[in-house]
Amino acid sequence: MTTPQRLDADLGWVLARVTRAHLRTVQDVVSGLPGGPRGYQVLAAAIDGEVSSQLAIARMLGVDRTVLTYLIDELERARLVERRPDPADRRARRVVLTDAGRERLGDLDRRLRGAEERLLAPLEPAERDTLRELLRRLATEAGPGNTSPCAEEIAATEGC
Amino acid sequence: MTTPQRLDADLGWVLARVTRAHLRTVQDVVSGLPGGPRGYQVLAAAIDGEVSSQLAIARMLGVDRTVLTYLIDELERARLVERRPDPADRRARRVVLTDAGRERLGDLDRRLRGAEERLLAPLEPAERDTLRELLRRLATEAGPGNTSPCAEEIAATEGC
DNA sequence: TATTGTTATACTCTATAACTATA
DNA sequence: TATAGTTATAGAGTATAACAATA
Prior knowledge:
homodimer; 160 residues; two-stranded antiparallel ribbon; 2 strands; elongated; DNA-binding
């Protein structure tokens, strides 16, 4: 047995290993995309227009809003998104995907799901679905990934 | 619906959210322990003596061996581990837990498993077991967490 | 008075490279 | 010639604080 019982019972260890393996697997898919995997997540968050302010996207991604400034700068330079003034709140910017951004996101979606299936190859098809569903429920119900707590009212409106 | 379909279908997003939530949950348990969650993982890897060289521990944890130097320095200062010469290879050091280290590990194990159950609270008991098992299999079968590929021969002997 | 976005800065984590000692 | 461990250093990623514009 190459893996001691104690260590593989640790969620922190298995999560770190799987996250690293995931990162390696999707690396070539997101290479060239500003921000890598995170750049994809910004596009995916903004595509529907429901989560479009930089702050809302930051909360969805579990990072500080200052991270989004640089990241969206790069995505804008790559002509994948545009910052537009929010008519309802002139402090906020709406992050809107360009046509190229929508195309790129579709391509990324397809290739990322493929790469992920390769990562999940050790599991049976039904097990892969189960794992995805359990992780999804945890991710959406276990609260924000941010260090600063996200109030319930904000959570309801901002997607935390 | 607060979470767009596309984003919560992304394994990278759910893994990042769950990992962050896990980190927040165990924070108070590992506060004061050198290296935090990673310090625990070193103790857990070294306890049985099968994975005792710094290099083997580094591979098990998916980090570069240089990370282990500082981390084990701290654990040694805290009297939780000792570096002992490996009689079979005088280049290598065997990382051995002290009595205090074994006690601390036992305490950490108990409290971490409790904290993790709180994290998994949104899931049914059977679902928690399923998630742990699927993640464990992925973590042990999906290859090393390290960026530098771990050769098969090494994997067999070093627990990659 | 609070919030969105920006900028500058500092901190943490990690890897790379060069070195010593062993194999 | 290759490997285990150490040290110094650099890079990526992130947060904190201060600021301007707006609510």
